[in-house]
Design goal:
heterodimer, A: Rossmann fold, Rossmann fold, 6-stranded mixed beta sheet, 24 strands, about 30% helix, about 25% strand, globular, B: mainly alpha, ABC transporter involved in vitamin B12 uptake, BtuC, 13 helices
């Protein structure tokens, strides 16, 4: 690259961070200049978070040097980092729900009219910032009443209020609709134009190509390469991330839908607080097709899946699988009818971390005659099946007795998928099947889901990743505020149209 | 009840993620208990030394009296028997994610119930012993099930309820042994003696109750590691949401685990009555249930390991009296040693709990709206 004349805001050289048994970062360097958007790309566990945590003062590097605006620093903690102009927007927002936007933004650095907080000047300052950077917020709104996208704006404003000129955004688009994402990318560009250096962590290749000036790729804690959007493509980036060629487009034939397997009519479900989460939803999934449910998270998808799998009570006119009533049946009974379930939160619902790979592979069938006789578990049968599945589903584990908690997210998810598909389900309900999963495993999991469809399973796919929905589904249903706003054939479901529906736009717009 | 269950006692028996765990988590399981016991002995030794006695001599007296004579060995086995069983009771609970602090109460209720069955029924020995034993176990199971049901159906922490049920049990057996079940024409608060047909025999110097306890421990080791029911217990204990998802009835498992736990504690009380005391007397049986907690934690919820842990504590308990006779040291020094042991074996668990809490705080100060 040509010599860059812009001021160097941040220079990290040879950063290494070890945790017991793992080297999270090894000899990683990066340079961030004024007005630059630097995308940090890598799979889960590649060391992106560790790297920025060192820059933000949350971890002390074991080796290497961090220079901020030319000055070598040893950051004692985030407070130190903030003082030096580093702002970070975490994946999980750090906001006080009952405070207003202005209160949240000034919290910890309040303008004073001693000994009181000068709320008037706080509000004015926040309003000015919001105006200046085009981040629209109502300064007096309570944060708990705001949608996620707006909360994120509050987080960003918080950093700007502290005069951050180095802004770190950790997976900021994970919680946004496609339109909100586009807005955010525009806002990021605005920051850069005003001289802020932005570090943007993501695993979404499309966004990286759309917004980054420079792309740094990490793999397994090590730096693999630097590139710029003009010189690469999604395939190129994926190859750098994974270290081998990756099929990003799911290779699948046209669906051949058969009879209706899953039939849901008039389903209504309430959430933990007793508020309606799913409102009068009706859908049908046929054998041999994938119905994708698109939607921003928190629009009732979770409750819908829980209701269909027996984990949450609900009311409905009809919920049947193959004509058999499953309304408010137990998870065990529903499973027995041939419904496989890949739960959204695999660590919590799908796996028992301290158990071995083998025990997890039979978790929902451990008492069946195949694996136990007269109440005594048949170790041999369990091990035989496990050895088989580990091979068939390419589960990378030292052995079938290894505890699942020591495996990577992708391998954990492969265990869940293997278990659910090994039973040859007539219907598969998969929620966020590739969340937190590395690119290589995503490819494999996608092909397994399509494979199940081709074997005649009715697949209900719920995902917050629109690309996943569009890539896998034969029909796309969009969920907003607990309702299915529309069901589109994949041929007419493009990003813009589905995105509008996800944001609550009407289907005629 | 859906996501997190506030009543759940996280005891840290789940091996934490090795990448997140501290150095303690990579040691073999036996290290912490052994080091804890040795440290407790060292601290106890300092206390003995402060009383002007050579600690090595004191420990020699303690162990030689407990283990060096036939009489001493018999007493150690008798003392260890209920401890193995209460240790098992707590262990079974822990495996299913329940912290049964109520082994003491369950044991008392069972000891009294067994005594009643022992002096009230007339039947041949082959029947009388098992009937009295099972009767006692049912009493213990029933008492524990009160806490089990409250936990399963109302999410009331079993820690709280079992502690409260202990107090109720103490008052209840006191009343029953001093009024309706009292031995007539006797000033003492105690039941009549059980029939000879209900007395547990002793083989040579080995009390049959001790053998029963060891067999039960081995059986439970097998049950928990090899059977589908054991798998249910472990799964509910390690991850109740995954258990529910896998089609295991979490409520049913909690009810059963608590009942089994109570039955085991009850068996401890029953054998104490049938094999040692021969009647129920409230003054006896004190502390057996609480030692069970120390034993279970020392054994790290491993049924087989409760045997050596219980024998160790049984030895200390039975040697304590000789310690006082021969050296003048207050026997409470044994309580101090046991208390320090408990503190040390539970410290890593407590530390992990605190550490985990702090981790949660970082992301949850404001609740995660994110994902």
């Amino acid at each position: 690259m040509a010599a860059d004349e812009r001021e160097v805001l941040l220079q990290a050289t040879g950063l290494t961070k070890r945790f017991p048994g793992v080297v999270a970062n090894e000899d990683v360097s990066l340079t961030l200049r004024k007005g630059e958007i630097l995308a940090l790309l890598g799979e889960n566990g590649a060391g992106k978070s560790t790297l920025v945590k060192m820059i933000y003062g949350l971890y002390a590097p074991d080796e290497g040097e961090i220079r901020i605006k030319g000055e070598a620093v040893r950051l004692a903690g985030p407070r130190d980092a903030i003082k030096r102009g580093i702002g970070m927007v975490h994946q999980h927002f750090q906001l006080v729900p009952v405070f207003t936007v202005a209160e949240n933004i000034v919290l910890g650095d309040e303008p004073l009219r001693w000994p009181f907080v000068n709320m008037k000047s706080a509000r004015a300052e926040v309003a000015r910032l919001s105006e200046e950077y085009g981040l629209k917020v109502d300064v007096d709104a309570h944060v708990e009443d705001l949608p996620v996208g707006t909360q994120q704006r509050v987080e960003i404003l918080k950093a700007l209020y502290r005069r951050a000129d180095i802004l770190i955004l950790d997976e900021p688009t994970a919680v946004l609709t496609p339109q909100e994402t586009d807005d955010l990318l525009r806002v990021m560009r605005g920051f850069a134009d005003s001289g802020v250096g932005v570090i943007f962590i993501t695993h979404k290749l499309r966004e990286v190509l759309a917004v980054a000036d420079t792309i740094e790729v990490l793999r397994g804690g090590k730096w693999v390469g630097t590139t710029v959007p003009a010189e690469t493509s999604q395939e190129g980036l994926a190859q750098m991330m994974v270290g081998r060629g990756v099929l990003l487009q799911v290779d699948k034939r046209a669906a051949q839908p058969q009879e209706v397997i899953l039939d849901v009519q008039g389903l209504t479900v309430t959430d933990d607080l007793g508020l309606p989460a799913v409102r009068d939803v009706s859908l049908q999934v046929r054998a041999g097709e994938i119905l994708g449910i698109a939607g921003v998270e928190g629009n009732g998808q979770r409750e819908l899946v829980q209701a269909l799998t027996g984990l949450r009570r609900c009311s409905a006119t009809t919920v049947t699988v193959n004509g058999q009533d499953i309304l408010n049946k137990s998870p065990h009974d529903i499973h027995a009818l041939g419904v496989g379930h890949v739960p959204e939160d695999r660590e919590k619902d799908g796996l028992v971390g301290p158990y071995s790979v083998a025990d997890n592979l039979v978790l929902d069938r451990f008492a069946e005659p195949e694996f136990a006789s007269r109440g005594v578990r048949d170790r041999k049968a369990i091990d035989a099946l496990s050895t088989n599945l580990v091979q068939q589903f390419d589960i990378r584990t030292p052995g079938i007795t290894t505890t699942v908690q020591s495996l990577s997210g992708g391998n954990k998810q492969k265990i869940v998928i293997a278990r659910e598909l090994a039973a040859n389900p007539v219907a598969l309900i998969a929620a966020q099947p590739t969340r937190g999963v590395d690119v290589g495993s995503i490819e494999f999991i996608h092909s397994q889901i399509v494979g199940a469809r081709d074997r005649g399973a009715a697949v209900l796919l719920v995902s917050a990743e629109l690309d996943e929905i569009l890539g896998l589904s034969d029909r796309v249903a969009v969920m907003y505020d607990g309702r299915l706003v529309d069901v589109l054939d994949i041929a007419v479901a493009d990003r813009a149209r589905v995105g509008r529906l996800m944001a609550g736009g009407s289907k005629d717009a | 009840m859906s996501t997190t269950d506030p009543a759940r006692t996280d005891l840290g028996f789940t091996d934490p993620d090795p990448r997140r765990g501290g150095p303690l988590d990579r040691l073999p399981a036996i290290v912490i208990p052994v080091v804890s016991v040795l440290l407790a002995f060292a601290i106890g030794g300092i206390l003995i030394w402060l009383q002007g006695v050579n600690p090595f001599q004191a420990y020699y007296v303690l162990f030689s009296n407990a283990l060096g004579t036939t009489e001493g060995l018999l007493r150690v086995m008798q003392k260890s028997t209920p401890l193995i069983l209460t240790g098992l009771a707590v262990t079974v609970g822990l495996r299913a994610g329940l912290f049964n602090i109520g082994a003491q109460g369950q044991l008392l209720v069972a000891a009294l119930g067994t005594a009643w069955a022992g002096y009230n029924f007339q039947m041949p020995m082959v029947l009388h012993i098992p009937v009295a034993l099972v009767f006692g176990m049912l009493c213990g199971a029933a008492w524990a099930s009160i806490a089990g049901a409250l936990r399963a159906y109302r999410s009331v922490s079993e820690v709280i309820t079992t502690i409260m049920l202990n107090s109720i049990a103490i008052a209840l057996v006191d009343y029953l042994a001093s009024e309706p079940f009292k031995e007539p024409d006797q000033p003492l608060t105690r039941t009549p003696e059980i029939a000879p047909t209900a007395m547990l025999p002793t083989f040579g110097i080995v009390p049959s109750g001790f053998l029963i306890a060891i067999v039960v421990a081995i059986v439970f080791g097998w049950l928990l590691s090899r059977t589908t029911q054991g798998f249910r217990f472990n799964t509910v204990g390690l991850n109740p949401s995954a258990a529910r998802y896998a089609g295991i009835s979490v409520k049913g498992t909690i009810l059963l685990a608590m009942a089994v736990s109570g039955a085991l504690a009850g068996m401890g009380g029953a054998i104490e009555t049938l094999g040692v005391t021969g009647r129920f007397e409230p003054a006896f049986n004190a502390g057996l249930g609480f030692d069970g907690i120390t034993i279970a934690l020392l054994a790290r919820a491993n049924p087989i390991a409760t045997i050596p842990a219980a024998i160790l504590i049984g030895t200390l308990r039975s040697g304590a009296a000789a310690l006082q006779f021969q050296t003048g040291i207050e026997p409470e020094v044994v309580d101090v040693i046991l208390a320090i042991t408990l503190l040390l074996v539970s410290a890593p668990i407590v530390a992990r709990l605190l550490f985990r809490k702090r981790n949660i705080k970082q992301t949850q100060v404001t609740q995660g709206w994110g994902s």
